[in-house]
Amino acid sequence: MTIPLRPGESVALTVTDRARKQAWLIWSTAVVVYIAAVFHRSTLGVAGLEASERFGLGPAALGTFTVLQIGVYALMQIPTGLLVDRFGPRRVLTAAALLMGTGQVLFAIADSYPLGLVARAVLGVGDAMTFVSVLRLAAAHFSARRFSLIVSLTAALGGAGNLVATLPLTFMLSRFGWTWAFLLAGVLTAAYSVIALWRLRDVPDGVTAPVQEPVPLRGVLRKVAEAWAVPGTRLGFWAHFSTMSTPAIIGLLWGFPYLVQAQGMSPEAASTMLGLLVIGAIIASPIIGAVFSKRPELRMPIAGAFVAAAIVVWTVLLGWPGGVVPIPVLGVAFLVLTVGGPISGVAFALARDYNPMQRVSTASGLVNVGGFTAVTIGALSVGVLLDLADGLAPQQAFRIGLLACFGVLLLGTWRMLVWWRRTRAEVFAAEERGETVPVRLRRTRWDASSRQATAA
After folding, report:
1. Same domain? 222 vs 197
2. Which residue among 162, 192, 394, 410 is least enclosed by CB atoms within 10 Å?
């Protein structure tokens, strides 16, 4: 999810009704590709049991599907930013729709585990190319004042793809079966690439698109190292790692099996429960985005409050006597976890704030890797632990398996707190030097030894 342009440095527009209509049309065309990406990314969240039966897989092998797709997504973040810079978002989004459609068609007809893995890898490549392209289009076609709103709306509408991957996909799988359900989704996505190529424009009419020269590999590596050396980038990495991982692991793969096998829910009821993750994120995204825009000094306290609440939620879920959690408690727990996705957007604000413009896309790619690294580690670890717990009652097996989510959350929280303190120390040091800082902060007792924190 790299952000190639700063909102304040987007292409200048003549504010006319025609330009505004064109901007909204282009954005709405592009956001459909992003909705499709979230849908394809989330399909195993409700089709995991069917995939296990179709390919004859245990929990660890099943988890590899999601781990591979998310791992490819993470690895593609920095290359995707370079592709968008080089070829423009119109071409990249068109290619993304084609790749996702092709991957889902392969998944529909796959009758072996290796072919299924190839299909998910192709999906991961296409998925990785969507969000950055949508944001580049938004930066080019909307003013800086509207950019934050567009980002929040994009994230919220992406939840619609997740919602389609719950109840409607469950219905399609039960009514039409594996092959036809996924074949239809793949063909429609690939066909939409024609619309994307036809309707999208990299820049507004009358504006010349900037010419980008190829970047040498050595220059790319130098930019990555420089961005990673910035405390604000490290803070963004661990904030994304901590806030995004739990709702993603639950929504992408393990939530549905947990609710059906460990909690005894019907597939329909489990889909409805998972829908709480989606609906909550859709509602929370614009609200949290508005708060972050108006009160940037509250971004990290809100992220800190969320990870504290998430730790409490996991303690309750994993420690509930007997392992069968009452539905009202599950509903509250899922609603709490759902805001992790919208709050994870703080990572990209940190990347923008603490890096110069020429490094923002690289820093954004790095912080995005944080969340998807956590998802990769967590999803795979849950599968491995479930394999080791084979033979136990489902409630006890999932209690052991989901300890991986708890462990990932604790690791991320610890590192986020460390780099939060170090970033605050950098801000206070910059203020003492008379430099302009992105966010005005108040010193607290926690900052008393900020110099030691910086040196650590």
Report:
1. no
2. 410
> Is residue 108 located within the same domain as residue 135?
yes
Read off the CATH number of the domain in which 138 is found: 1.20.1250.20
Boundary (domain end) residue, out of 204, 238, 263: 204
> Is 60 exceeded by the pLDDT of residue 314?
yes
Residue type, 215: V
**140 and 11, same structural domain?**
yes
Q: Which of 108, 78, 102 has the alpha carbon at shortest distance from 4? A: 78
Q: Does residue 204 carry a pLDDT above 50?
A: yes
Structure tokens at 425: 């120390």
The whole-number pLDDT of residue 455 equals: 47
Spatial distance between the Cα atoms of 364 and 351, rounded to a whole number of angstroms: 6
At 183-201, the pLDDT tens digits run: 998 999 999 999 999 988 8
Q: What is the dihedral of CA 244, 1, 91, 118, to 10 degrees?
A: -50
Q: Cα 141 vs. chain centroid, distance in angstroms?
A: 23
* Token digits of residue 401: 């398996």
Distance CA 341, CA 349 (A): 14
What is d(CA 220, CA 234) in angstroms, rounded to the nearest whole number? 18
- Segment 366-409, tens digit of pLDDT: 888 888 889 888 888 998 899 898 888 889 999 999 999 999 99
314's tokens? 């996991």
Residue 144 sits in the same domain as residue 239:
no
Place of tokens 């430099």: 435
Range of the domain at 407: 215-456
Answer whether 225's CB lies under 8 Å from 396's CB: no
The pLDDT of residue 42 is 79
> How many separate helices (H) and strands (E) can be counted in the chain?
22, 0
Closest by CA position to 100, among listed 194, 33, 169, 154: 33
* pLDDT per residue as tens digits for the range 24-51: 899 999 999 999 998 888 787 778 778 8
Task: Judge whether 169 and 44 are in contact, CB under 8 Å.
Answer: no
What DSSP line would sit under 148-206, residue for residue?
A: HHHHHHHHHHHHHHHHHTTHHHHHHHHHH-HHHHHHHHHHHHHHHHHHHHHH--SS-TT
In the 3-class helix/strand/coil scheme, how is 360-379 assigned residue by residue?
A: HHHHHHHHHHHHHHHHHHHH
Q: How many CA atoms lie within 13 A of 54 on its CB side?
A: 21
| pLDDT on residue 454 | 47
Same domain, yes or no: 122 and 240: no
Residue 15, pLDDT above cutoff 50 = no
Type of residue at 210: P
209 domain residue, yes or no: no
Same domain, 189 and 250: no
